[in-house]
Amino acid sequence: MMSKFVKIKLWWLICLRLSEIVYATNCCSVIKSANTKDDGVIYKFTGTYHRERRFFVNDAVNRAIWFENIDDNPDWVVGDKDNIVNGQEIYGFLRSDEDTPCPTDTSDWRDVRNGEWLNNPDAKLECG
Question: What are phi and psi of 98, to 5 degrees?
Fold first, then answer.
């Protein structure tokens, strides 16, 4: 028989988990990139989540948008879809350092130019 404390803790953990999933459900289902290496590419929500955030894919160019939070350093990342499959989710060509529910809520993007991560104030992901 569970104690009242254990029941309350379980209830709280279930509510927390549900709130994390709900947190990411108000995102667009289709995202378009602008002013980036893949300018104009359309990404679609796959119906799956990665680290409690929506996972967006463009199969034609084998690219994806995902959320990673390794070492408590949250980032939205745009890169090759294979990076997720190969356990290299920190690798991409566009990333943010903002912990937002959706990638379209991020305004601080950096991209790789000449082997260096540089701010790109013009880069954005928008509902498409």
Answer: -110, 140
- Between CA 15 and CA 1 the distance in angstroms is 22
Distance CA 5, CA 50 (A): 31
- The per-residue b/e assignment along 30-61, b for 16 or more CB within 10 angstroms, e otherwise, is ebbbeebbbeebebbbeeebbeebbbbbbeee
| N residues, the chain | 128
Quickly list H helices, 1-128: 4-23, 82-85
Q: Which residues pair with 71 in a beta bridge?
A: none
CA atoms of 43 and 81, how far apart (whole Å): 11
Of 92, 104, 83, give the one whose Cα is nearest residue 27: 104
pTM of the model: 0.78
Tens digit of pLDDT for each residue in 111-120? Answer: 988 888 899 9
Q: What is the pLDDT of residue 22?
A: 46
Which residues, including other chains, have CB under 8 Å from residue 72's CB and lie 6 or more apart?
none
